[in-house]
Write a structure and sequence with these properties.
alpha+beta; Structural Genomics Hypothetical 15.5 Kd Protein In mrcA-pckA Intergenic Region, Chain A; Pseudouridine synthase; 4-stranded antiparallel β-sheet
Length: 316
């Protein structure tokens, strides 16, 4: 396999006036601006080679060619994985909170991908050398169901379902505050936050369209337990959308303030259920990652708060 990789993306309206090196780092998420020279990057805009300082206009096509200098350092690692299901084509895991899914800047070891390489001999053959078997991602601090592929063919079969949104994902979250209704839909654009490039924000115009359905499972004094059903798969979507309705996820270091009752608990977001068709049989199957103990502890503490509301809002 060539040691050079390519990627491209189109600048949107919200990228007008943004430096192309910042676009490559923040929007394409290949590597940081400081790593451009290390990776031997060549950037073209609309087919012409440009400097990193080139300012973009809406509609510009950005093409990046870069040297995959870290490939040789990505090695299998013996990591304890919580495996929910496995066959000849896939491995479904319950990803632990705090585990990074695949190697990236600042996290070149201890990732789920490297644990899978150790668990499945030949996992990387014919697939992405940095993200072998990885079909979708969960944030480092999000726990729960994640499906991975053992072969390149299985990886493509699963990836098509994520791209076509022909699967179903359900997350559980504990948030501060209570949404405006017991169930509803949040539909916004999502774009990079100009005030903090590590965050995203909901926007009325521009950005990438994002839709999340929510349901209140239980209300407490100042907190809520939610079921979240993302109809799209944008980066930080659930974290941005809950914050948009003034109910940030408890323990979120980017989108919520520190909580006086709960500190150092981590992000209270869990990928609870995934329904997807499996390679080979084409049969639809549902996988569930049990509610983590950290959720149970917080829910017990919330139930003891004064004025806690009782009862569960059941899905209809």
């Amino acid at each position: 396999m060539s040691d050079h990789q390519e990627a491209q993306a189109t600048a949107g309206q919200n990228h007008a006036g943004v430096r192309v090196d910042r676009f490559v780092a923040d929007e394409m998420e290949l590597f940081s601006r400081s790593q451009l020279r290390h990776h031997g990057v060549t950037i073209t805009v609309n087919g012409k080679i440009v400097k990193p300082s080139r300012l973009l206009q809406s509609g510009d096509l950005v093409h990046v060619t870069y040297r995959n200098t870290v490939e040789a350092s990505i090695e299998p690692e013996a990591i304890d994985l919580d495996i929910l299901y496995e066959d000849d084509d896939v491995v479904v895991v319950n990803k632990a909170q705090g585990m990074v899914v695949h190697p990236a800047a600042g996290n070149w070891s201890g990732t789920l991908a490297q644990g899978l390489m150790h668990h499945v001999n030949g996992l990387a053959d014919g697939s992405d050398s940095i993200r072998p078997g990885i079909v979708h991602r969960l944030d480092k601090d999000t726990s729960g169901v994640l499906i991975t592929a053992k072969t390149a063919e299985s990886q493509e079969y699963l990836s098509q379902q994520f791209r076509g949104r022909s699967l179903e994902k359900l997350y559980l979250a504990i948030v501060r505050g209570t949404p405006p209704r017991s169930k509803g839909e949040i539909a916004t654009g999502i774009a990079r936050d100009p005030k903090n490039r590590k965050r995203f924000t909901a926007v009325a115009q521009g950005g990438k369209s994002a839709v999340t359905e929510y349901r209140v499972l239980k209300r407490f004094a100042g907190y809520s337990f939610l079921a979240l059903h993302p109809l799209t798969g944008r980066t930080h979507q659930l974290r941005v959308h809950t914050r948009h309705v003034r109910c940030p996820i408890l323990g979120d270091p980017l989108y919520a303030r520190s909580d006086r009752l709960f500190s150092n608990i981590g992000l209270m977001l869990h990928a609870y259920r995934l329904t997807i068709r499996l390679p080979g049989s084409g049969k639809e199957q549902t996988f569930v990652a049990p509610l983590p103990e950290r959720f149970r502890q917080v829910l017990r503490a919330l139930a003891d708060l004064p004025s806690a509301a009782s009862g569960v809002q059941r899905q209809r």
